[in-house]
Amino acid sequence: MGGPFIKDLLKNRPTYIYERPDGTFPNHDGNPLKPENLRDLKKLVKTKNADIGIIFDGDADRVMFVDENAEFISPDLMIAFIGDFFEDRLKPGTKLIQDIRTSKSVAEYLSKYDIDMHTWRVGRAYAANKLKEIDGLYGGELAGHYYFKDFYYSDSGLLACLIVLQVLKDLKHKGISLSQRIAEISKYYSSGEINFKINQKKEAMEAVKDYFVKQQKPASFLDFDGYRLNYPDWWFNIRPSNTEPYLRLIAEASNKDMLNEKIEEIKSIVEKFD
Question: What is the pLDDT of residues 108-158, one digit of tens each?
């Protein structure tokens, strides 16, 4: 559904692909988080020597991006990127939201504005209500949802797309590429989302939490949407799927060896459960 709307906004300036609505999904399904659904977009970015590639999900409430090198950008990092659009409105104490899976890089990059970042539950129903509750300016999620006070505290892939393009245009005038700005934002190594297919989700989650708490008291601990344990050089979020027999893990660390070590420790615990 993003095709007709984005063409109305941007006319014939971009190169489009699969923009005609078709509920049979003849080219690929509507989830832009799947790597196989990005292949054609990445090829097009390289062929056209484009500055950015943009992909919407089926109903265009989510949007994701690849850089000029056709590298996928983790959607949580774009929360930080969008911040530069709101530079004049990011006064000290301005409230923003991110979900519990968000990279530490986001709040660290936006700290130059002295903002008040709120971390909250995953999902549109939670995020939109939280942004309204705290009267936040904007926020985002790892899933590619971006929420705006100016859009009734709701999410819009189209509005997020326009904002990202404006920031990119300003950067291009300064000779800065999308990948260069993302490199300034992203400072950690991430596991991406790892899924464990088990039925004893709660038991495994508790075991992982208890193991690391006994090893070292976390710098901070969040206990909604599973658990997020923050340590000085790494963090992880482990949370159960509400609809599938999956336990979902995301971890991030200051170096790759530490990240791999922690992932292996967590896997060795989870694999003991059915």
Answer: 999 999 999 999 999 999 999 999 999 999 999 999 999 999 999 999 999
Asked if 39 and 23 count as a contact pair (C-beta separation under 8 A), the reply is: no
Q: Is 56 exposed, middle or buried (0-12, 13-18, 19+ CB in 10 A)?
A: buried
Q: Is residue 159 part of a domain?
A: no
pLDDT (tens digit per residue) in 12-38:
999 999 999 998 999 999 999 999 999
| CATH number for position 41 | 3.40.120.10
Q: What does the alpha-carbon distance between residue 29 and residue 34 come to, in Å, rounded to a whole number? A: 9
Q: What span, in angstroms and rounded, lies between the C-alpha atoms of 17 and 28?
A: 12
Burial of 72: CB neighbours in 10 Å, binned 0-12, 13-18, 19+: middle
In angstroms, the Cα distances linking 146 to 31, 149, 185 are: 16, 10, 18
Provide the domain count of the chain. Answer: 2
Give percent of the chain above pLDDT 90.
Answer: 97
Query: What one-letter code names the amino acid at 70?
Result: A
- Given 20, 39, 74, which residue is the final one in a domain? 74
- State the residue range of the domain holding 259: 189-270
